[in-house]
Design goal:
Helices cover 77% and strands 0% of the residues. The protein has one domain. It is globular and about 50 Å long. The chain is mostly helical. The protein is built from seven helices and no strands.
């Protein structure tokens, strides 16, 4: 098994552990939805990277990616109903859209021009940051299980970074 594949498996195991697999039944559907969303996001980013590598401009890829997501979400909202926004909520949602778009453009660039496996492993760190934000801002408790998951995620990144082949050219001698 290559170090890259091992890193992906270790990182994903860390995410599952960080999700607390012994969660009560009432939260298992939400956790499963989150894991499936992560899987589909990984597949989407892989395909987005391939589009950019074939010559599609990043902004065009992000535009159509966002357009499809907006149309799909709009269809679901039509079925379940909209909620009226006050001015503060509208400003917050616009800020989320702006920063989300900037993040999407940079992730598209990273997946299009970088090593897909390395970018994926490093993106696992967002789970760690989310957990720490929950701890520091929302007073969520960190358990030994949480730390174990975070350590596995960090380990997966370390493996892929330190075990990747060097770009340095090998010196060929006359004897060898």
């Amino acid at each position: 098994m290559s170090p890259s594949i091992a890193s992906v498996i270790i990182g994903f195991a860390g995410i599952i552990i960080l999700q607390h697999p012994n969660i009560p039944d009432r939260k298992s559907l939400a956790s499963l939805t989150g894991l499936l969303a992560g899987l589909f996001t990984a597949l989407a980013y892989f395909n987005v990277g391939k589009l950019v590598q074939t010559g599609e401009p990043e902004l065009r890829v992000v535009f159509y990616f966002s357009l499809i997501g907006t149309l799909f979400s709009g269809g679901i909202l039509t079925l379940i109903g909209f909620t009226k926004l006050d001015s503060i909520s509208a400003i917050i949602i616009c800020a989320i859209g702006l920063f989300g778009s900037i993040g999407q453009i940079t992730m598209t660039f990273a997946y299009g021009h970088g090593n897909t496996i390395i970018v994926s492993i490093i993106s696992y760190s967002t789970i760690i940051f989310s957990t720490l934000i929950g701890y520091f801002i929302f007073n969520e408790q960190l358990t030994l299980t949480s730390f174990t998951g975070m350590i596995l995620i960090i380990l997966s990144g370390a493996i892929v970074i330190f075990k990747r082949p060097s770009n340095r050219k090998k010196i060929v001698t006359a004897a060898g």
